[in-house]
Amino acid sequence: MWTSSRLPGVTLAAPASLFAPETGPNPGTTQGGHLMSRTTEPGTGTRSVPPERIDVSFMYAVHDAFQRDLDRLIAMAEAGDVPGPALRAGWDRFSTFVHVHHTAEDTHLWPVLRDRVADTAVLEQMEDEHNALDGLLDGVEAAINASAPAEVLAARAAELAQGLTAHCDHEEELALPLVQKLLTKKEWDAFGAEQRDKLGMSGAATFFPWLLDGAEDETRRKVLGVVPPPVRLLYRALWRPRYERAPRWQMPASA
Question: pTM for this structure?
Answer without folding.
Answer: 0.80
